[in-house]
Fold:
Amino acid sequence: RKTVVRGAYTISSFMEGTGTNLRLPLNPPFNTEYNALFTGLITVGATVDQGLTVLQAKDPYKGATIRLWDPNVRPADVQQWSLIIEQQLWRNMVLSTGYIGQHGSHLVVPMPYFQKKLLPDKTTVRSPYLSGNPLLSSITQISGTESCGNQRYDGLQINARQRFSKGLEFQLSYTYSHGMSDAIGYYGEGGQAASQSAYWENLYDRKAEWGPTYFDAKSMLSFVYTYKLPFGKGSAFGANMNPILNGIVGGWQMGGILNLRSGFPLTIQATDRSGTNSRGARADRVGNGEGPHQVGKGLTWLDKSAFKEPVAGTLGNSGIGVIRGPGWRTFDLSMQKSFPITEKRGLEFRAEMFNLTNAPQFGVPVRSASSATFGEITSAQGERNIQFGLKFNF
Structure:
């Protein structure tokens, strides 16, 4: 009577996009982009009476970006499953422990079809998507769309819930999880997540893209509570308290939110020296990479000596998400006091303190091995913020 077992399985399908700039209607000759620059000219070659005809390129394919779609593109399939055990510990408290899993296939991935193929002798050959078609020799770039990505998530979730009892209500949640994927979608995210390029480093080496998802936080803990202090009229202490004293110590309520999270994985970038026109070049990794986790000008979060620019004619061997960035920790506190005036009217005072301890939430370190500030954290956010409010209820 005090134990519940819940299990579920579902499969869903959706079509993910790759941005409006990869749509097929943007291909020439249906759509062209052409600039006419008049900087430095004494006389302007085009006049208003000529309209837009002078902005039409003679060869719409010259310098153009061609969009290609795999004819087998299909909506993604996502399977989700869970097994959760709930146990009532006492009257108002429940503890639940569960395993949550997810597997995604046929995820949409933007493909760098223009990339040349790198041979063992460090020479390159033309992309097979262009071979045999000399008419495409003048284009600048080819961007493609395929539904070839995969994703996996496994998580242990523990949750303790205390319903309102004796003035206290709280929820404590902890998640230990791991996500892996070879695709970030088209846009990814910035901030602490610091996603790698949406394009693979090597179009011809799909396995090298399998790594932690950019939002993979191994450990996450949150604690949320509200507590009505047991002092004053109608409470456990001071039920018959003097009205003046009750107005000072009675009617207080506090609440808080504690958030702790481990750092996101970081992918170390580099200059493309392969000659393949890689759009997701990464560094060479010659060591572990976990550094002193120092913050400040001239100090590094990671071990810079573990990464270097690739040798000319090669692609970087560093994988996806090989080190971890800064974590996240904040504690928000609120204090609330009620001042009853009549049965239907009263004042409510609130003091809210966000990030009470003023713990800095550091940004991601510079991830480019070619940067002069490689490994340094140059940004932070989340300074302490205190606000007060007074509300009249009637």
Observations:
- Helices lie at 243-249.
- The radius of gyration is 29 Å.
- The mean pLDDT is 89.
